[in-house]
């Protein structure tokens, strides 16, 4: 008897796939169901099914990662919500996939193909999987992981401030001052550390002791002493640009 | 020919008078608004300056006339000028308010298309496998849409009670999908249900808690919605025991949107605070001035 495993984090989805499989392939024995990628791998090792239906987006291990553990031992069918990148990759790699919500016709065709393939060992899709993992990673924003949240102690509580709220950072002897539109916080992280970790397109260094949010800058003016000063949206204080950073504003 | 010439002269005189009147009234406006101290300095300078040219007379006339005008007409004129400026300012403020309202409508009008699609797919699945559950989810979806779609939104939906109701409908749908992986707790005292609370903010925080906190966690977890008043500030907290904030993941459109709307509605008097609880996970708290009723 042919055996199968269903992995999807949503129970109603598993129920539906099970019911549809029973309708189009009554002889198929569904030996186990998994709610995440890790369980899918463990249960597949335990039950040794012939076919594994894998949802791609699952907590823990994703469907793609689980497939890399399993493809040499069983036939893999991916089940996915609409995702153009993944679909293109499936088509190119001649892999089996079902689109959610799974239609009965499509499932019947896939099952027919699986029946024909069962006699042969599972196809070697290792290379395609590696490529797919890469494609999906590229589809997600591939920006380097810059620091996006600042942690500060406020009245005994740890507070997380999004860098988007920060107007500027200013070093203040022992601490670094974090200024938002509504609050001023002190953190221990040094300006040097911040400059290394923050997105250089988000914050510019305009002074030895100042990092300023670029899109908060309203105006750059010269004061009476000839210093260039930055004025910020919604904030009174003006910040000085030191001589070796004036080049940042030459185009303006 | 002579007529024509005379006509030109008349025209010229009329223009000159008009210009003169404009200059005169500008002078009066200036006099009305200028401070006495400044005027005094100008008088002294005028007398000294003209005195050095040995013709102090015009300066004395200037002092005399300007003193007279300022004393006699200054107060009334000043009030008029200030009223006009206030009118302009009020117009600008009004325009700004209209602009803010338009921005607000745009910011509120966002039902996630993914959510709608997934929920309809879920109802489709449940019709086959569990029809009574399908009917329940369907009813929750209707409640949710009624509260969410701007065209359907009932007036007076901006109370904490209404927002919590809608959040419960949303969470019930998510529970049908995530089953035991999503537990929900609401701690909102009855007396706070009538408190005004802007639409779609609670919703947005809950979506975040599920998407970034609980969905990526294998075991799932609990979302706790809590409301309380601290001094005169209403705190509405959405806490989850999920995987917590990734320090390197940019905050999404949802949070930026809430911050923007709080700023538009309350100026600096409201804030969105993120505080991870000691046990892990994330707590997002909206804090705004508390009032008991709408328009109170």
**Sheet with the most strands of chain B?**
5 strands, mixed
Give me the secondary-structure category of chain B.
alpha+beta
Strand order of the largest sheet of chain B: 1-2-3-5-4
Rg of chain B (CA only)? 33 Å
Strand line-up of the largest beta sheet of chain A: 2-1-3-4-5
Briefly, what CATH class of the largest domain in chain B? Alpha Beta
Write the CATH homologous superfamily of the largest domain in chain B.
Answer: Histidine kinase-like ATPase, C-terminal domain
Structural class of chain A: alpha/beta
Description:
- Chain A has two domains: 137 residues, Rossmann fold; 101 residues, LytTr DNA-binding domain (OB fold (Dihydrolipoamide Acetyltransferase, E2P), Beta Barrel), CATH 2.40.50.1020.
- Chain A has seven helices and 15 strands.
- A five-stranded parallel sheet of chain A has the order 2-1-3-4-5, sandwiched between helices. Chain A has a five-stranded antiparallel sheet with strand order 10-9-8-12-11, with no helix packed on it.
- The mean pLDDT of chain A is 88.
- Chain B has 296 residues and is an alpha+beta fold.
- Chain B has two domains: 105 residues, no CATH class; 175 residues, Heat Shock Protein 90 (2-Layer Sandwich), CATH 3.30.565.
- Chain B contains eight helices and five strands.
- In chain B, β1, α7 and β2 form a beta-alpha-beta unit.
- In chain B, α4 runs antiparallel to α5.
- Chain B is elongated and about 105 Å long.
- Classes of the chains: A alpha/beta (252), B alpha+beta (296).
- At the A-B interface, α1 and β7 of A face α4, α6, α8 and β4 of B.
């Amino acid at each position: 008897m042919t055996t199968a495993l269903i992995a999807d984090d949503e129970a109603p989805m598993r129920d539906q796939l099970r019911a549809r499989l029973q309708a189009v392939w009554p002889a198929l024995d569904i030996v186990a169901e998994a709610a995440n990628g890790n369980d899918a791998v463990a249960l597949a090792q335990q039950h040794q099914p012939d076919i594994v239906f894998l949802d791609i987006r699952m907590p823990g291990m994703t469907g793609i990662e689980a497939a890399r553990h399993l493809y040499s031992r069983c036939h893999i069918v991916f089940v996915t919500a609409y995702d153009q990148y993944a679909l293109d990759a499936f088509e190119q790699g001649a892999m089996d996939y079902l689109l959610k919500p799974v239609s009965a016709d499509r499932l019947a065709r896939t099952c027919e193909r699986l029946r024909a393939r069962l006699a042969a060992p599972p196809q070697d899709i290792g290379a395609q999987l590696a490529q797919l993992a890469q494609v999906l990673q590229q589809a997600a924003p591939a920006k380097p992981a810059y620091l996006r949240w600042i942690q500060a102690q406020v009245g005994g509580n740890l507070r997380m401030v999004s860098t988007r709220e920060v107007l500027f950072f200013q070093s203040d002897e022992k601490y670094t001052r974090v200024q938002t539109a509504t609050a001023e916080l002190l953190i221990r992280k040094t300006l040097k550390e911040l400059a290394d970790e923050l997105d250089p397109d988000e914050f510019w260094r305009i002074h030895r002791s100042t990092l300023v949010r670029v899109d908060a800058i309203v105006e750059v003016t010269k004061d009476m002493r000839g210093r260039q000063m930055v004025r910020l949206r919604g904030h009174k204080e003006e910040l000085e640009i030191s001589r070796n950073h004036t080049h940042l504003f030459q185009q303006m | 020919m002579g007529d024509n010439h005379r006509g030109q002269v008349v025209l010229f005189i009329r223009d000159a008078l008009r210009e003169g009147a404009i200059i005169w009234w500008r002078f009066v406006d200036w006099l009305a608004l200028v401070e006495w101290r400044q005027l005094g300095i100008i008088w002294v300078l005028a007398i000294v300056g003209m005195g050095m040219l040995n013709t102090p007379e015009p300066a004395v006339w200037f002092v005399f006339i300007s003193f007279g005008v300022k004393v006699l007409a200054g107060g009334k004129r000043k009030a008029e000028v200030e009223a006009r400026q206030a009118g302009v300012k009020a117009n600008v403020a009004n325009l700004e308010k209209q602009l803010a309202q338009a921005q607000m409508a745009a910011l509120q009008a966002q039902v996630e298309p993914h959510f709608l699609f997934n929920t309809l797919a879920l109802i489709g699945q449940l019709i086959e496998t569990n029809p009574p559950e399908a009917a329940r989810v369907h009813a929750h979806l209707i409640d949710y849409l009624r509260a969410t779609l701007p065209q359907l939104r009932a007036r007076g939906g901006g109370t904490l009670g209404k927002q919590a109701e809608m959040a419960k409908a949303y969470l019930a749908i998510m529970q049908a999908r995530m089953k035991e992986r999503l537990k929900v707790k609401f701690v909102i005292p009855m007396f706070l249900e009538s408190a005004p609370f802007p639409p779609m903010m609670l919703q947005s925080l809950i979506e975040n808690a599920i998407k970034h906190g609980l969905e990526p966690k294998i075991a799932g977890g609990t979302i706790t919605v809590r409301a309380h008043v601290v001094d005169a500030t209403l705190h509405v907290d959405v806490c989850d025991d999920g995987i917590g904030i990734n320090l390197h993941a940019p905050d999404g459109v949802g949070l930026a949107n809430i911050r923007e709307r709080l700023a538009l509605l309350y100026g600096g008097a409201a804030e969105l605070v993120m505080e991870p609880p000691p046990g892990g996970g994330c707590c997002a708290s909206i804090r705004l001035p508390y009032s008991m009723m709408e328009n109170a």
